[in-house]
Description:
single chain; mainly beta
Amino acid sequence: xxxxxxxxxxxxxxxVAFGALKGEHVNRVDFRNGRVAGTSRLFKGxxxxxxxxxxxxxxxLYLLTQTATAxxxxxPGDDRIVRVIPPGS
Length: 89
């Protein structure tokens, strides 16, 4: 899986993942032969508002959440970085 910021050429990307602040999930788009083969929503409501998704070593995903806003009173744990390890790793 690759985030939208991946340096890999699009022809080699099998999937992309990106955050959905309002939907509180990660969108995953799978490709086959250069065409969209499917889409899915991951972690719906599990981590709150997901701003950014980045692929790390070993295929782990790092999710940056954004819960607090400038108008809100921030609390510990509002905004965080979550590491998600793929099954079988």
